[in-house]
Amino acid sequence: MPRRRIGFWYRFAAVICKPPLVVLLKRDWRGMEHIPAEGGFITVVNHNSHVDPFAYAHFQYNTGRVPRFLAKSGLFKKGFIGAAMRGTGQIPVYRESTDALSAFRAAIDAVERGECVAFYPEGTITRDPNGWPMTGKTGAARVALKTKCPVVPVAQWGANELLPPYAKKPNLLPRKTHHVLAGPPVDLSRFYGKDMTAEVLKEATEVIMAAITRQLEEIRGERAPETPYDPKRERIEQRRRTEAQKPGRVPTAGVGREEAGSGRETAGQAGGEEGLGK
Questions:
Q1: Quick one: pLDDT band at residue 238, thresholds 50, 70, 90?
Q2: Are the C-beta atoms of 84 and 94 separated by less than 8 Å?
Q3: How many helices (H) and strands (E) does the chain have?
Q4: Which of 8, 52, 243, 268 could form a disulfide with 95 if both were Cys (CB 3.0 to 4.6 A apart)?
Q5: Measured between alpha carbons, how far is 66 from 115 in angstroms, rounded to an integer?
Q6: In 163-233, which ranges are E strands?
Q7: What is the DSSP string of 28-57?
């Protein structure tokens, strides 16, 4: 299937974004050979800075296969930014609404048309204290198992040194290096043909996140923690600690139980809604 043309809006965005990225970041990009030359596929990328969607888009733009990101629907309504988001073919995610699943339908349609959809499976910037990938949402796995498309794991590091997570001011000097390492497609074939239960999606997502983490271990030259940081588990522990600190209170077994204990996720919760243009 032919590749998606880059188009006016993507080229225009590149003209605006590439010069400052080239000035601010040196590049150590590897693994471009794993980006398919033809046909639909998804990339799954770790997220550690508000700058890295632009830095990663620069990497993939240079492969000739431009990505379509899942992004918050509100960005599509903001003047020039909205026009650019629509023009470059990004996919809006409507959180907690009747349109929530439209993002997944759009992602599946894009892959089946031979395009690339880029997921940030963590759903937000990592909260791991040392910048390692967290547990993932199931959106990428849902699309991958539905389409049986290649899933290319990509790790990046360096944009977070330019602009640390949740920081307001960049660290411009010394000039930072943006490291990107794309790996061979993740083998999810053992999940094909199975019902997409919560357990199957969770296991497929863990396989995807493990592949991303291995790529990041190679970039950083160190081992990641055995157990990925889990924001949901951390919230439970925080509630228990808070409850235990209250005078005269004895924590009950139900403290910290997650509201979404059924394992169901909306489209906004399930994957990568923070994309290009945040």
A1: confident
A2: no
A3: 9, 7
A4: 268
A5: 8
A6: 176-182
A7: EEE-GGGS-SSS-EEEEE----SSHHHHHH
- Inter-residue contact 204 to 144 (CB < 8 Å): yes
Separation of alpha carbons 230 and 156, rounded Å? 20
Cα–Cα distance, 31 to 183 (Å, whole number): 6
Judged against a pLDDT cut of 60, whether residue 240 lies above it is answered with yes
Alpha-carbon span 3 to 16, nearest angstrom: 24
pLDDT digits 0-9 by tens, 153-176 = 999 999 999 999 989 999 999 999
The strands making up 67-72's β-sheet, listed across from edge to edge, are 25-30, 176-182, 151-157, 41-45, 116-119, 67-72, 91-93
In this structure, the number of other CB atoms found within 10 A of the CB of residue 121 comes to 26
- Token look-up 């089946």 returns 112
Span between the terminal Cα atoms of the chain, in Å: 31
Tell me which of 50 and 253 has the higher pLDDT. Answer: 50
What number of other Cβ atoms are within 10 A of residue 27's Cβ? 15
Per 3-state DSSP, the chain is made up of helix, strand and coil in percentages (nearest 5) of 40, 15, 45
The rounded distance, in Å, linking the Cα atoms of 164 and 261 is 32
